[in-house]
Amino acid sequence: MHRLLVLYPKPADPDHFRDYYVNNHLPLVKNWPGLLAWRYTFDVASTNGDSPYFAVFEADFPTATAMAEAQASEHGQRLTADVPNYATGGVVVIHYPVQNSTA
């Protein structure tokens, strides 16, 4: 599995971010091709001091290739183009293969 992680620093207007994200952006995410699962939160805490992030989004894809194809798709481009409508604090996007282990 391959994960896309989006970290959102604090926006200029947190209420607008929350409202737009939930009511406009996340409905677009639901139809992203190749998406296995996704999750998000606004409750980002730090173990030491204030968190540098306001929100976090995770998306799981079967492979890095599937993720790249999803991002390059028309739908993926629409998602990317929508980000400036709410993320006035910027955005950090990283991705990585997920390593599984059992305890």
TrEMBL record:
Matches recorded under InterPro entries: Dimeric_a/b-barrel, EthD_dom
Protein name (Swiss-Prot/TrEMBL): EthD family reductase
Chain ranges of the EthD domain: 11-88
Molecular function (Gene Ontology), one example: oxidoreductase activity
Entry-linked Gene3D superfamilies: 3.30.70.100
Superkingdom, natural source: Bacteria
A Pfam family per the record: EthD
